[in-house]
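Run log, item B.
One chain of 472 residues. Sequence copied directly from the ordering sheet:
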Amino acid sequence: MDDTNLESFNTDYMRKYRGTSRVALKPTTTQQVSEILKYCNSRVIAVNTQGGNTGLVGGSVPLFDEVVLSTRGMDKIVGFDDDGGSLVAQAGCVLENLDTYVQGRGWTMPLDLGAKGSCTIGGNVSTNAGGLRLLRYGSLHGSVLGLEAVLADGTIVDLLRTLRKDNTGIHLRNLFIGAEGSLGVVTACAVQCAPRPRSVQVALLALPLLQARHLAEILSAAEFLDLESMKMVTKYLPDNVVNPLSSSSSSSAAAASDSPFFMVIETHGSNETHDQEKMGAFLEDCMSLGAVTDGLLADSGRQASLVWRIREGITEALVRRGAVYKYDVSMPTAKMYELVEDIRSRLEAAGFRCDSGSDSAVHVLGYGHVGDGNLHLNVSAPKYDDRIQDLIEPYLYEWTGRHGGSVSAEHGLGQMKAEVIGYSKPEAAVALMAQIKASMDPKGILNPYKLLPQKALEEAYSKLNKADGATV
């Protein structure tokens, strides 16, 4: 390929990370992946596995000139069990396409992301993607029944089973879920789908304070965004998105448009009348307590899509505006917005303007999955500035660690966070991860320079080399 065609393989979605690979390969079968890895391993050629390239921590693009192994050509649905709801698909299948396929058969994918139109199921599995409905359907460690992966030396490991229960030995599939392609290339997976809900209710709420309360058993998603996020979406998205609360005829519309927080609530159930009554009672209860100043219960699929477009469009709006510093952390819900306010105050104290009225301002936004304590803290600036990053890092990671949180809730570690895993995991755990990496990829060709600290990897490979050189 020429440099123009390689640009999309070398550059991440946010245009923050850029590699210099001169080779991108697009296999269509597991056997082809095996042959590629066998060849590269024999010559110690580094390989960067890439799916939809929608990652946000630089895990999907090369750092240098690694060979890009794209799974986009592996986009076949292998099979589906209409009775049990288990789906088997190649790694390059786009998430939205899979959801459309199973929905036509009365099921739904247990995973939903803003990037569903581009991300691939293999990438989702390799990063253990969380998404909007983890609260209802759990993580991929529970939804993935089996998978197929190719090791660094080309060995094909076939764990592609659709059994709900299989307690035979070490559950190897879990090694590959969330390993970000560092232990092997996921080429196919079996996913347990959920029954398609007969009733879906969506509401957008305006809140004076960020809090979650009185959530029902039919809840499938509880998302929040702050006023900065709402303003970013309505200003920068190309499809003229508006805040439906500010355009409503309610007496509180004016106050709602400037509400400090908004929440998207979605329920999945089987009885529409029951679910509507439950959602209505929930809204009335919240408003009577003063927890909600205004709300909208979507009365059509179009209106529900508009509400979700606001929440899912935040990242797109940020990228359209300019440079983005994205952070994905988890912590106790009560602490989530404290971190946003702390970072904003820190930048303002250093002389950066954080008011929303200026095009040159640095905007600090908070949004995310309030139902599971996952905060997406984003800093938007007209262009990348090392001073901004130095004010954020490592302060943000230290703050998160002090409050018992995780430096990566769902985005993974990639290039961005490989060296800061120690704020969330003890040294012994990191060392064990490095030992697993060294034993499964002895020549270190798979997605190098990512996921784990270089020091831990060097020590693990040093021990491996000494053991290989020892005489028995």
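Observations after the first pass:
- The chain has 17 helices and 17 strands.
- The mean pLDDT is 92.
Flagged for discussion on Thursday.
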